[in-house]
Design brief:
The structure is a single chain. With about 290 residues, the chain is mainly α. Helix content is about 55%, strand content about 5%. The chain contains 13 helices and 3 strands, in the order αααααααβββαααααα. The protein is globular.
């Protein structure tokens, strides 16, 4: 992903999801402008690395900026790095070796299995809106897809007979994912009642289309999740990646092997998957006792 697009996506997140003021967003834009002036050769987010922050700090100090201004600009970049990690837009943990501001942690929110049930109950599948919401959420939770994988999923890559999805992930890496009967029902309902009326271009490969017949966007998915959450009593901040994270967590809680989860998530490194392992002490003790049981 281009660095400019990633920054725009982050600023959109801060504006829409976090509700920050326009003045604050403008300040952040200036911080990014300064950061990119220090590293003019950066074009894609894959070029980012953790060593850039210390270099950025040094540059700010040499500019004779006030300590408060330096702190603000550095925090902006660190939080941007965190955003890229949470959204899984990068594989490398950029902040792994970077000292974060006091109290700041890379928290990966997930829903309990009870909250997942409440979340899905808030979807009214008797309406066209509900049918679309259900399919998007099924792909995020029951298949563990990234947002980019949901919006780019080709209808040609849905194997109905074997109930397997062919997913093109990061770096054009392909993986095959099994899916539940429930997901197949959602796909069929969406195709018959919605997609057929939106495929104006006759041959659009994307499964999910807008009313104008164009592929849905990341913001579209964000708004779907936000609207569903508003109809529940869930107090956590729920984003599309929250459902993917819940998918991984619930697999691990129910005994799935971490290597299997790694493959299903499309992680190139198991260390990325290990970030998702935050099982409760009770679950760990239960697994330990089960292993040593005579």
């Amino acid at each position: 992903m281009k660095i400019i697009d990633a920054i725009e996506q982050y600023l959109y997140f801060l504006s829409v999801e976090k509700g920050l003021s326009n003045n604050t967003i403008i300040s952040y834009k200036e911080d990014f402008k300064h950061f990119l002036s220090v590293f003019p050769d950066i074009e894609n987010i894959d070029q980012l690395d953790e060593d850039m922050i210390p270099e950025f700090i040094f540059n700010l100090q040499m500019s004779m900026l006030k300590s408060s201004s330096i702190s603000r600009e550095v925090t902006t970049i660190k939080n941007f790095y965190l955003f890229l990690e949470r959204e899984e837009l990068v594989d490398t943990l950029l902040t792994h070796q970077v000292e974060l501001p006091k109290g700041e942690k890379l928290l990966r929110t997930y829903l309990s299995q009870g909250e997942i049930k409440e979340f899905f109950k808030a979807i009214d599948v008797s309406t066209l809106q509900g049918i679309e919401e259900k399919l998007i959420c099924d792909l995020l939770y029951y298949c563990g897809l990234r947002v980019s994988e949901v919006i780019n999923l080709s209808i040609q890559n849905i194997n109905v007979q074997d109930k397997v999805l062919k997913v093109c992930g990061k770096g054009n890496k392909e993986r095959y994912l099994p899916y539940k009967d429930e997901v197949l029902v959602s796909i069929n309902e969406y195709v018959k009642k919605i997609r057929l009326n939106r495929d104006f271009k006759h041959g659009n490969k994307n499964l999910l289309l807008t009313k104008r017949g164009n592929p849905i966007t990341r913001q579209y998915v964000y708004n779907v999740i936000k609207n569903i959450t508003s109809r529940t009593n869930i107090t956590k901040k729920v984003h599309p990646h929250t459902l993917r994270h819940s998918f991984a967590t619930h697999l691990l809680e129910n005994g799935a092997d971490i290597r299997t989860v790694q493959d299903m998530l499309g992680h190139s490194k198991i260390t990325t998957t290990q970030v998702y392992t935050h099982l409760s002490d009770d679950k760990l003790i239960e697994a330990y006792d089960l292993f040593w049981k005579d």
